[in-house]
């Protein structure tokens, strides 16, 4: 066993209100610079929808991630050799229009406009060229518009749904959507790292954060193509690539990342996970049906004496092991098994997990436009959810609807157990049967409720103390280079591990 530590995250989608406070916080801290106008290291999408950049999930277009290659994996559309063949013309790399053309307004026009009968308006101008533009899209163009023909029907995750299943859903177009906040997943098998011809991308040994060395970056932009989540960006001003750094300067001072600290809905959790690095290649090369199970199995029990011994042998500090034992991510992902990775079929083994949304499922709209209840019960059957299980499985389990159903059974069991405990208006025999089918005890249901609804800041964010002797990036003051590259180191650390 090669046990290593990884700072991981859980986003609880039932709690996200789509306020974009996280995106604005990240923007103000890291990407408020020239050349980074179009970058959103954190963005919140409305699903179903096309996302940012447009149709980022369609790897037939962008060729991101890994593909199974026998007992191993190979990059789908980029790489140190494969990518160099397209160095002067890369049709798989998103262009500015796929993101959006950033703009501002000539607010001075509001003050200098001549007297007239109409209210003056401020003309939109490009933040890149400074010339007037006609706004055609934005980073959040489909916000709250999922279900409309222009956006939701183009969602890549509908590929497994029949025409009749899609049509049935779109009859409810104004009532079916949820929010999907996204940041860099800081994957165990990052395609961006594997694709860089310059070796500029690397994964920190002490916490697994994926970073880009600005001095070594040569603007090959293979990382942009290789990342299937499209969380690596090219700075047109500096000629360097950039990405989310998980606010490592904040982590090193015991603070939560900016997006997580600012989250209004308290949907975000952060903690340490211990994993066996020896299994990465084997897990990444799993068959689609085994991807989620094998991915979750790579994480090791931090209370297991053998794991603790192996972690210490690999240089993991006792303080980090203790943080892993108290990690909320461990509870959601492994202990309770109610959080799932986003698009595991990309085979990057992401370290950002999502608790799927329960969705409103109590009613439907009939052909006459009448709002009719689908069930006489307070909590209708899970099968009545307006968003099909196939769609959710396409997002979180590589098409495995059984795994999604298991998660929903547990989430519904918690809801009904807590309703029965506090209001006592549900048949106790049905609640007990639901708990039994979900293989859940009352203590577990109460613990899930506690961490979901009533958790303190310290319970949601268990940040291990950093060790200066290992975290070499701490030597540099982040603010010294923020205006140039967005983070505060210039040379690749030499760890000698």
**Helix count, DSSP H or I runs of 4 or more residues:** 20
Radius of gyration: 23 Å
Mean pLDDT: 86
The low-confidence parts are none
Strand segment tally: 17
Query: Which fold does the CATH topology refer to?
Result: Alpha-Beta Plaits
Question: Can you give the helix content as a percent range?
Answer: 25-40%
* Spatial order of the strands forming the largest sheet: 13-12-1-15-14
Quaternary structure state of the chains depicted: single chain
Describe the largest sheet.
Answer: 5 strands, mixed
The CATH class is identified as Alpha Beta
Query: How many domains?
Result: 1
Structural shape: globular
- Assign the structural class, choosing from mainly alpha, mainly beta, alpha/beta, alpha+beta, or little secondary structure: alpha+beta
> What fraction of the residues are assigned to beta strands by DSSP?
5-15%
Q: End-to-end distance, in Å?
A: 16 Å
Structural features, described:
By secondary structure, the chain is an alpha+beta fold. It has a single domain, classed as Alpha-Beta Plaits (2-Layer Sandwich), CATH 3.30.70. Helices cover 30% and strands 14% of the residues. The chain is built from 20 helices and 17 strands. The protein has helices at 21-30, 59-62, 96-99, 109-112, 163-170, 191-195, 222-226, 248-251, 258-261, 280-284, 291-297, 305-313, 318-325, 328-335, 389-396, 401-422, 428-437, 442-454, 457-460, 478-485, and strands at 3-12, 43-47, 66-69, 72-75, 103-105, 124-126, 178-182, 201-203, 210-212, 232-235, 240-243, 268-276, 299-300, 340-341, 352-355, 363-365, 371-373. Helix 15 (389-396) crosses helix 16 (401-422).
